[in-house]
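DM from R.C. (forwarded with permission)

"hey, sorry to bug you on a friday — could you get me a structure for this? deadline for the figure draft is monday and I only need the backbone to look sensible"
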Amino acid sequence: MNFKDKVVFVTGAASGIGLCTAQGFAELGADVLLGDINGEAGEKAAAEIRANGGKAQFIKLDLTDVVSINAAKDKILADKGRIDVIANVAGWGHIQPFVQNDDAFVKKVIALNLLGPVELMRAFFPVMIEQKSGKVVLVSSDAGRVGSLGESVYSAAKGGVIAFTKALAREGARHGINVNCICPGPTDTPLLRSEPEKFLEAFVKAIPLRRFGKPSEVADGIIFMGSNRADYITGQVLSVNGGIAMVG
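My reply, with the result:
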């Protein structure tokens, strides 16, 4: 895979899966734009990629704020003139019984995990249509495919991302745009490690491969779907999950 001269925008790129994705694209020659709400970590991540010989620039992005999304789009187009790949990795959740979810929690989960990707594509999809090309990779979760105990609203939002992927793929195909979805299982990220130890132990026992996924392993799937190796793949959902869910 070669991304030389390709402009790639990765959201949630300051840590975890998003960071590994940005690093992987850069290693393959892409001009990577790292979007994240965490400015300090995002700038550091971009600087490290540049120090290793890659092309990288940090762009402040709040996926729950339409103004921020459009500002990021305007900056990318002003600086680069095009967008070739969008990998929306940003997301957030917390294990909590549904009956304990308050209004603020529900709104945050839906705003970041479902409405965020929708608004991101409302901003960038017309650009790709005008270009008559583009690759979109939306990151959902296996929770959106099979449900997850203690993540009812998160599962609903991520299930919406899967449906959104399929519908958007149908609209984009005639314009040369591929839209696909990656569904990570339990992955060893700072967000996962913030959960209680008893939940982590139960997760590992449920995974046939008996370990958490590495962020780089999920990133590999995202990068593949953003590459020319996936030119004839659109509207598809790929789980990277160690076998915890086996969906036909």
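R.C.: lifesaver. The chain has a mean pLDDT of 95.
me: no worries. The chain has one domain: 7-238.
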